[in-house]
Amino acid sequence: MQSEILFRDFPRSIALRPIQFESDGNPYEKSNPLLLLFDQVEQGYNDSPLQCNVRLLRESVADIMDYRSLGSKAVYGCLGLLQVERAVVTECLPIGEIRPNESVFRIIDVEFYSLANSTRYSVSTYPGNRTSYYDDNLLNDQLPQQSYEHPCTQLRKLLSNGHFYFSSDFDLTKALNVRSTISSTDKYTYDDHFLWNKFMINELLNFRSKLNKLEQLEMDICGFLVLVIQGYVGMQDTLIGSSRASLSLISKLSYKRAGTRFNMRGIDDDGNVANFVETETILQHPETCFSYIQIRGSIPVFWEQQGLQVMSHKIQISRGPAATQPAVERHFNELQSRYGNVHIVNLLGVKEGEFVLGKEYKDRIIDLNGNGLENRVLFTDFDLNSICKNGNYENMAQLFSVIGERIEDFAFFALDMESNRPIFYQKVQTALSKEALNTYVKLMGNISQSDIESLHSRHSILWAENGDSLSKIYTGTGALRSEYTRSGKVTWAGVLTDATKTVNRFYINNFQDKSKQETIDLLLGKLLNSKAIEIHDPVNELIREDMLNRLNDYSSKSTINVYIGSYNLNGHLPSGESLSSWLFAFNDHEREPHLFVIGFQEIVELKAQQIVSVDPEKLRIWEKEISKALNSRPGQRSNYVILRSGQLVGTALVIYARSDIVSNIRNVEYVMKKTGLGGMAGNKGGVAIRLDYHDTSICFVTAHLASGQSNLEDRNKDYHTINDGLIFRNGRRLLHH
């Protein structure tokens, strides 16, 4: 249902009033509709939560005599609250019905309305695409009063990019097999992995949950709240025999580790991986409904690609095996709880960093299966680039021959449309949607070859569009090899198109993605100073105050011991002399350090050719030497694993953690800052590694400053440059630890 926007100037208030009303059976009056009102609240002290009032009232009770209509187009619901702005969907495109009464819409446009003053913000069509400032008090607001770059501009562009979807009929964040259960009939009991506007709308959902059942139902019918996914939704109609059927594809990108290609790779400490997508193929038939799910994501180890990526893939494994394993276990425990048994199809090849990454991945799965999971995580290597090189994608049949038996074991999910009861359950997800669809079609019986070919053709179109959409979200361009996905053929036009996409990716990923990442983090509430808007509730404020006063009743503190050492190596390798006398200088078995933090300077000779490139081999040698010393001390009770290391030419930082505390460490990040030759060379500079140990944030820095007794001013300048220039994700600096 659509709504119109009403506003009041003093005190500032914005209201949503439904435009269309369903007759027959709706539990509210057409002449006295419900309104959802947002009121400005005077803010308290600086650190107090940002607040607003939200009310759900009948029009007769709301007293809207002082409210006026904006006179703008209707809106399709509220996306949520952000800082002092409220976002609404103003334009959308219907995709179709996945099943009867399950419509899906693609968001085309959104607008932000201020609760602080009488302004709203919209990207204009004037040259430069600047944000237009509109005063709601003007009788004619069609022309911008003034034009400037408002903070919501990039966020509005992101939400209007054509990759966000919603439904007013059902919970689009959940797959069919979950929606079919009685416990999931409430469309607002969302899947936490895929709700992209959770940060903005969570307080409004809490507000809804406190209403009685009748008020919840009325509010839902009005369609005031919008739950949004990002990804792809497509539909194709077809015929199976004489019956009409629809083939749909729904891909949902997880927001848990969201970001652009080079800014977000691998896994985090909670087991979330970058570019994680759940894709569901649905075939809706009058008698039954078929569903098949597959998942994909970034390789679940700690890895990254730093620096300018020029036609190469400089991959760095950023955390040691033992320190990686807890996150890998969390990842696969989560997958198994959601999807059951898992079979991995690894498409990495043997070139450049792919081999290193693939080996690390396989090693982690071997350790995983040896840690109580009873080989439930199966692993199949399939070097796609080598096996299908030169466009020989018919060689994909080799994959089916390897895991063909498993395809039948995995099955699919099927629902009886009349009884709404499951017929089959899918046991695991793979990248074999077409084969699963074939299996289902065969079970239906008496399907003509022409119907099967038509189904395959539509399936290919949907998957090509899906690939392009997901690729644009993550890399900025459409998918490579999409021509083959659509037509089953490799053409010169397709090859040239892929080459163009590759060049565009290089530019976008290296020069534009940083600002896009900041916009994504703003939407998700992950920026350093992001604060969620709270709905004013005096009772909650009293509870919060009481909890702060009783903080010591439900929290505890502990002390950790940290050994910090610094060593200028002058370019030398280990001589064979034991490092124990240095590393264990305190010789206290009762207080063995939880962390060893080692800073190196001049780990390589600072020659001209070394200044512009990093030689990691000497650092690897020193890491092994330190590990050997830490874990070979007679009588020691603890084992130490390498947590993270980072290197800037000759400056390096290595952190080792006791193996029994690794699971308590989160959010390990590394950054560096050059100061040599005016910031262009890495012969001087600093390296920093930050981490969270339980609820405490810690940052370590090692630096190599300008040398010489006469260079006091240069050293101080280096210090300030490093101190100001070491910036972690989300804008976190040294002083924030």
Poorly predicted spans? 123-131, 137-145, 427-431
Largest sheet: 13 strands, antiparallel
| Cα distance spanning the termini | 47 Å
Would you report the number of β strands? 30
Which structural class should the secondary elements be placed in? alpha+beta
Strand residues, percent: 25-35%
Q: Helical region count?
A: 19
Q: Give average pLDDT, whole number.
A: 81
Query: Which term fits the overall shape?
Result: globular
Protein name: 14780_t:CDS:1
Characterize the structure shown.
The chain has 737 residues and is α+β, with helices and mostly antiparallel strands. The chain is 29% helix and 28% strand. It contains 19 helices and 30 strands. The strands form 6 sheets. Strands 6, 7, 8, 9, 10, 11, 12, 13, 14, 15, 16, 21 and 22 form a 13-stranded antiparallel sheet that branches. A 6-stranded mixed sheet has the order 5-1-2-3-4-23. It starts with a strand and ends in a 12-residue tail after the last helix. The model is unreliable at 123-131, 137-145 and 427-431 (pLDDT under 50).
Q: What is shown here, in short?
A:
With 737 residues, the protein is of the alpha+beta class. Helix content is 29%, strand content 28%.
Highlighted features:
737 residues, alpha+beta, 13-stranded antiparallel sheet, 6-stranded mixed sheet, 19 helices, 14780_t:CDS:1
